[in-house]
Amino acid sequence: MLLRSTRLGAATLMAAAALVLPQSSPIASAAAPCTIGVTLRQGSRASGVWCLETTLRLRGYTGVVGPNPYFGATTTVAVQAFQQSAGLVADGIVGPQTAAALGIRRAVGTPVPPAVIEQRVIGTSVQGRDITAYRMGTPGGRVVLVVGVIHGDENKGALVAAELRTMPTPAGIDLWIVDSVNPDGQAMNTRQNANGVDLNRNFESGWSYIARGAHGQYSGEQPADQPESQAIENFIRLVQPSIGVWYHQDANVITTSGRRKAIPLRYSTLVGLGTGGVPCTQMCSGTATKFANTAVPQSTNFLVELPGSDQVTSEMMLMHARAVLDVITM
């Protein structure tokens, strides 16, 4: 589980960083001769972490010596100290701005060719249908989850999921794609699963009871008492996605839930949809994105509300798939 980064004063940050410096650590103005390809943060496992730590050590902010592919708490403190001294937001995240200030070049890695490298059944539905996660990209990289369908009668997101499996995955991204969390509802063309439960009211975070007949949004009798909810909750706890994109219909809007609002904002720009909340005729409780953002601290899970099915085109689905591949590298 990732730890929450905290804002510290400049003196505190520099003092904390100094604690990990060896007495003879040189302070250099030049960056290490290396590059990073993705945004790095606490919990990242990538070859670019070695580049970051080497650069921080040369600049006198850490004593960590590589090669070390894990971005830990010590590196977070060092990054925050550098950001504070450079007049940047001291959030401990190494995105394009912090990398540029450190003098690290952002390498555009060669995308991983479109190939499913793992197919995992993560659970079964009420009626025994498999819930399958497809893995693409770079194991050990930034973990991303895309879910095409959670309401069975809102099924166009599955087309985005299918499109993604035909496209190269950005280097450094460990991409998991779940076509449908609700295969029974999809087969019956119903919002609910085979037990009549609205799965997006059944997740355990923020769950509240909603009775049967309440606009089709029955929550179940207990939090996560449906096999589909249990399957995806357990999978999220296991793989710890940093970013999650969840498809719905028909509200034509992108929500900005999760920690890094820039990600859904960028997505909305790319696909031409506005941002905002999703109207709920009942309480928006027990939702998948709330669970995922709670289960994985500092993650960014958001909804993409596509238009109605009669307005969805193949070109639109391709545009959304391309938007996914763009924002997951931020």
A few lines on this structure:
With 330 residues, the chain is of the alpha/beta class. The protein is built from ten helices and ten strands.
Structure commentary:
This protein has two domains: 10-106, Muramoyl-pentapeptide Carboxypeptidase, domain 1; 118-327, Aminopeptidase (3-Layer(aba) Sandwich), CATH 3.40.630.10. It starts with 9 loop residues before the first helix and ends with a helix. With 330 residues, the protein is α/β, with parallel strands linked by helices. It is elongated, with a radius of gyration of 21 Å. Residues 1-32 have low confidence and may be disordered. Helix 5 (157-164) packs across helix 10. 30% of the residues lie in helices and 16% in strands. It has ten helices and ten strands. It has an eight-stranded mixed sheet with strand order 3-4-6-5-7-10-8-9, with helices on both faces. A two-stranded parallel sheet has the order 1-2. The chain has helices at residues 10-19, 48-58, 73-85, 96-102, 157-164, 183-188, 227-239, 262-271, 288-295, 314-327; strands at 35-36, 105-106, 118-124, 130-137, 142-149, 173-180, 243-249, 253-254, 274-275, 300-306.
Quick tags:
single chain, 330 residues, alpha/beta, Aminopeptidase, 2 domains, 30% helix, disordered N terminus
